[in-house]
Every structure is written in structure tokens, then in C-alpha cells.
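User: Could you write out the 3D structure of this protein bound to fe (ii) ion? I've included everything you need below.
Assistant: Certainly. Input first, then the structure.
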Amino acid sequence: MLAYCALNQLKSSLRALYTRKFSFIGQEIWYPSSRSELDLIDKSYEDCVSRLGASYPGYDDSSYMKWLKNTRNIDQSVDADVTDIVYPSDTYQTWKILYARLRELHLECACEEHKENLRELEQLGIYSPEKIPQFSLVNKYLNYKTGFKLVPCGGMINPRSFLYGLAYKIFYSSRYIRHQSAVFYSPEPDVAHELMGHVPLFANNDFAELSQSIGLRSLGATEEEIEKLAKIYFYSVEFGIVGNQILGAGILGSCDEIALIKNKKVEIKEWDLEKVLKSEFTLSDYQPGYYSAESLLEMKRLIKEGIDFIRPMQPLKRIPVYL
Ligand SMILES: [Fe+2]
């Protein structure tokens, strides 16, 4: 315990040192120049429970809230193996119901790249409705496919830190699962969103390259550039559409949002950088509109052109390739 506290103190001091160093120099912004330096970034997260109070699903369930708090309380090094966690027995029913419903909707509405890898995850026995997959097993699969790695975090972290992770093929993810009283709703990204929405696509090379390319441009970016990159990420990785099929995990993790797209109840515009950058997005409600590219490859091309315009590729001390 003492060693753990000392390590945390050391990390805080190093982070403070870096911040002081670069604010003294002037405009230069610190960024991790190797994957292990990601352990120095700020991973404080939005406290959704405090923000929503009694309207947070499960707020009155003291044993769930205690488990939720413990599950968020993580200090995971990016290079260490992710240790397994114990899910309370009643969360298995939540997973089972949600898995079956999402699976059915995905077959109908998800893009081919997502469906192909979801099928593969099932064939390999990593995914099933019976058990919430542990990150350790999912990471072995992702490492083999694209080199991406899920690293648990406490909740929604700030965009800069999150994008820095993508640069090094680290995807900061939640491990808690929504409360059983609200199986089809979560006020913040939970493990169902990460595993059912994101993981099958992070196992696709084009999608992995697209995501990493956004992250790479964030290294040392200004606040204005981070804001633009976050919008590009948001309207592709989280809420993108390709053709008539869904790519974004923000949609693929939500039964209601899939239904909105499926039933054409929302506006879907052609993916266009200028329009994307002018759009506002919300993290707590459905999006005012969505953007669609012809295919995943076309979206990748549009984004590559877009980020080159916003922030040309910077020379890095070490090019992060983890495959
Ligand atoms: Fe997400």
C-alpha cells in the first residue's frame, strides 16, 4: 500500500514537473513521446454520479454504487497486463439481455467490418451472452489483429488525454456495467458500449489506422486543434455512418439510437469536414444529426485529408508502432 501511494506521488510530481517545464518555455505543449509516458497523463474523469445525483440509474442501490466506485478506482499502467475483475452476479442478467438485443440490431444495421469481427469474437469463444468478457482476453485478440489495447479508466477522461492514448493504440475504456434497472440506458459509456460498440471495429486494420491517425495529430496540438480533432473523432469513431450502415460505437452501443437511424428519424448528411467542424455534439443526449461516408475506406480518406489540413504530421521522437 505504501509503495502504491509513493508511486502515485511520484507520478503526480512528474506530471507537475512536465507542466511547469513547458509552461515556462512558452508555447510548446508536452506530449508523451513513448507509450509508457502515457502513464503521466491526466486521467481524472467526469463524475457522472455526482452530476446526475438521484437520477443516476442504481443510485439507491448501495451495493451496486459501492461496486461502481471500486471499479472506477483504477491506476493501470499502459504496459501492464489488465487484471480481471469480478462482476456481481446480477449484472450477468443485464449483459445477457443487452447482448441479445444489440446482437439482433447489429446483424441488421451494423457495418460489415463490425459484423465480421463480432462473429469472429463469438466463434473464438471470447464473446457470448453468458459472460461479460474480461479485458485481458479481449486484449489478446486485439493485439493479434491490430495492436490496439483496452486500458481501463474511471470514466470519461479529457479529450487531449484520450486522443494521446489513441496515438499509441491505447483505448481508454470503462469496465463497469450499467444498473439492472436501466438495461437499455446508460448515462455514460459503460463496458457494453466499449465491448459491443468499439472492440469489433478496433480489430479492423482500416478502422485502427483511422483512429490512430487522429490520435497522432493530437500529440502537442493546441487546444483549438484538439477541439477540431475531437469533433472528427466524434463524428467517425463514435457516431459515424458508412453507406446505410452504422460504424460509430456511440450508436452501436445504444438500442434506441440504432432504432433512430434504422427508422430514418434523424438527419443524416454527407460526411464533410467543414460541416463536421461546425457541428456541435452532445454527450448526454441523441445527436442533432449524423454524417455518412460511402464506405469505411472513403471515411478514412476524408479524415486523412482533413487532419492534414488541421495539423500536418509532426516529427516524433519515436514513431509509435505497436504491432
Ligand atoms: Fe465510445
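The chain has 14 helices and six strands.
User: Perfect, thank you.
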